[in-house]
C-alpha cells in the first residue's frame, strides 16, 4: 500500500481522514482523491527529470475533474487536452492557454477553431489532411497556427493492445517513414508554424526500453530534418508511464530517468512529457458498500453498489484492482467474485479474488482508481454517476456532486 492510504487503529484513512466518515456522510459509490498523493507523484516525476529543459503536461484524460486540473496547473504543470471538452475544462480551471497543448487524432473544425481562438501553445497534427485543415481554418481566422507533428515510430510498448498507440497498425500519428513529407508540406503552408515533433507509444508502460527505442528513432528523424533545413524547438515524448496496481505504488521513475536522460539531453530544445496515470492513479479509491452476499455450488458472490458503469476498467481491460475493507478485518479469507448491480455478466470488479468474509453493509475501497476511473464512467442502466471527493490533510470536500435522478434526463425531450 502507498503512503496515502493507510490503516490507523484498524480504520482505512486517506491522509488524515477516515474513509468510513466520508462514506457515511456522502454515501457510496464515491471516488476519493488525495491531494498530497497527487502532488507527491508530480514532484517525483519532475525531480527525476530535473536536469532537462522540460515541460511536464498533465494528461487530462486520466482524471478531468476541474479541481484536479487546477491542482496540477497551480503546481506548475502544463496541461495536455485531447478534445474540445477537455480544453474547455482546462480553461474553466483557470489554466493559462499558453500552457495547454491540444492533441487528438480526430479534431473537428469546431475544436480546431476553439483551440486557435484561445491561443493554445500548440496543436498536435496526426495526418496530412489535418495539416491542410488547420492551415485553412487559420487562414480564415487570419492567424498562424503553432503545430507539432505526431509521428508513429512503430515501436511495441508491450502493453494492453487497447492502449498501444505507437505501432504502425495503430490509428495514431503519421508513419515516421512519411514524416519528412509531412514536415515539408507543413513548411509550405503559410498559416502554419511548425514548432515541435511528437510521439506517444502507449499507456501503462512499465519498462523504459520501448521509450529508448522510440526516442532513438525520433532523434534520428530530427537529425535528418536538420539536413533539409527544418529545425525543431520542442520534442514531445508523450506519456504512458505506468504504475504497479498489485502493490498500489508508482513504478520507480528514477529507473526510467537513468535510461532516458542520456538520450534526452542530446536535444537542444525543450522536452515535453504527458504523464496522467502516473500522477493520479494511486491517489484515488472508489468507496463502495456491500449490498448482498450469496453462494451457489460454483461461486461465492459479493454484490456491491459500484458497477461497471462506475469503473469500466475490469470489464474493458481485465484490470486487477486491489480491494480493502475500510475496517481492517481478521476474518477468514474466502475466494469471491465481487460484482455490481448492472444486468450483465461482464459487470464485475474482481473475479476469484481472496477477500476477508464480507457481510451486508460492509464498506470497501477499490484501490488505484484515480486514473481512468470516473472519467470512463457512464449512465448505463440509468445509474447515477458517483460523487467525487478531494482530501487535503484532515479535511475533505466534494468536488463533484452525486448525480440525481433529474440529472439523468437533463436535456431529454418528449
Please specify the SSE layout and strand pairing.
Layout: E1 5-8, E2 11-14, E3 17-18, H1 19-26, E4 30-34, H2 35-48, E5 54-59, H3 66-74, E6 78-81, H4 84-92, E7 100-102, H5 109-117, E8 122-125, H6 128-140, E9 145-152, E10 174-175, H7 179-188, E11 192-198, H8 209-227, E12 234-238, E13 243-244, E14 249-250, H9 253-264, E15 270-273, H10 277-280, E16 284-295, E17 300-304, H11 313-317, E18 323-325, E19 333-339, E20 348-356, E21 363-366, E22 387-392, E23 395-400, H12 405-409
Parallel strand pairs: 4-22, 5-6, 5-15, 6-7, 7-8, 8-9, 9-10, 9-11, 11-12, 12-15, 17-19
Antiparallel strand pairs: 1-2, 2-3, 4-16, 13-14, 16-17, 16-21, 18-21, 19-20, 22-23
Helix pairs in contact: 5-6, 8-9
Major sheet attributes:
9 strands, mixed
Tell the overall outline: globular
CATH class of the largest domain: Alpha Beta
**What's the tally of helices?**
12
Note the beta-strand portion: 25-35%
Span between N and C termini? 50 Å
Name given to the CATH architecture of the largest domain: Alpha-Beta Barrel
Q: Report the radius of gyration as a whole number of Å.
A: 23 Å
Structural class, by secondary structure, is alpha/beta
- Pick out the low-confidence regions: none
How helix-rich are the residues, as a percent range? 25-40%
Mean pLDDT: 94
Amino acid at each position: 500500500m502507498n503512503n496515502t492510504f493507510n490503516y490507523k487503529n484498524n480504520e482505512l484513512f486517506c491522509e488524515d481522514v477516515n474513509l468510513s466518515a466520508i462514506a457515511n456522510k456522502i454515501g457510496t459509490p464515491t471516488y476519493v482523491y488525495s491531494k498530497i498523493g497527487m502532488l507527491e507523484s508530480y514532484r517525483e516525476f519532475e525531480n527525476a527529470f530535473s536536469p532537462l529543459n522540460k515541460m511536464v503536461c498533465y494528461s487530462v484524460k486520466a482524471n478531468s475533474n476541474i479541481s484536479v486540473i487546477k491542482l496540477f496547473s497551480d503546481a506548475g504543470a502544463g496541461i495536455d487536452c485531447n478534445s474540445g471538452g477537455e480544453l474547455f475544462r482546462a480553461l474553466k480551471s483557470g489554466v493559462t492557454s499558453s500552457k495547454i497543448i491540444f492533441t487528438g487524432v480526430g479534431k473537428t473544425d469546431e475544436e480546431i477553431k476553439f483551440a486557435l481562438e484561445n491561443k493554445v501553445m500548440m496543436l498536435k497534427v496526426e495526418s496530412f489532411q489535418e495539416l491542410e485543415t488547420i492551415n485553412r481554418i487559420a487562414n480564415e481566422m487570419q492567424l498562424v497556427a503553432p503545430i507539432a507533428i505526431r509521428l508513429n515510430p512503430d515501436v511495441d510498448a508491450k502493453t494492453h493492445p487497447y492502449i498501444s498507440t505507437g505501432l504502425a497498425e495503430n490509428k495514431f500519428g503519421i508513419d515516421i517513414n512519411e514524416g519528412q513529407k509531412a514536415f515539408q508540406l507543413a513548411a509550405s503552408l503559410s498559416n502554419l508554424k511548425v514548432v515541435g515533433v511528437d510521439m506517444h507509444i502507449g499507456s501503462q508502460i512499465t519498462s523504459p526500453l520501448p521509450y529508448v527505442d522510440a526516442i532513438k528513432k525520433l532523434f534520428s528523424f530530427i537529425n535528418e530534418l536538420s539536413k533539409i533545413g527544418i529545425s525543431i524547438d520542442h520534442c514531445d515524448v508523450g506519456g504512458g508511464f505506468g504504475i504497479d496496481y498489485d502493490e498500489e505504488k508508482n513504478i520507480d521513475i528514477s529507473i526510467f530517468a537513468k535510461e532516458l536522460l542520456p538520450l534526452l539531453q542530446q536535444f537542444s530544445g525543450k522536452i515535453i512529457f504527458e504523464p496522467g496515470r502516473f500522477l493520479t492513479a494511486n491517489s484515488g479509491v472508489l468507496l463502495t458498500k456491500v449490498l448482498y452476499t450469496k453462494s451457489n455450488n460454483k461461486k461465492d458472490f459479493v454484490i456491491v453498489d459500484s458497477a461497471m458503469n462506475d469503473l469500466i476498467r475490469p470489464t474493458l481491460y481485465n484490470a486487477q484492482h486491489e480491494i480493502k475493507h475500510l475496517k481492517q478485518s481478521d476474518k477468514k479469507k474466502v475466494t469471491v467474485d465481487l460484482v455490481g448491480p448492472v444486468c450483465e455478466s461482464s459487470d464485475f470488479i474482481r473475479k476469484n479474488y481472496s477477500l476477508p468474509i464480507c457481510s451486508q453493509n460492509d464498506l470497501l475501497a477499490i484501490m488505484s482508481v484515480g486514473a481512468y476511473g470516473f472519467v470512463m464512467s457512464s449512465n448505463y442502466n440509468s445509474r447515477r454517476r458517483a460523487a467525487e471527493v478531494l482530501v487535503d490533510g484532515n479535511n475533505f470536500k466534494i468536488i463533484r456532486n452525486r448525480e440525481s435522478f433529474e440529472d439523468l434526463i437533463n436535456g431529454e425531450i418528449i
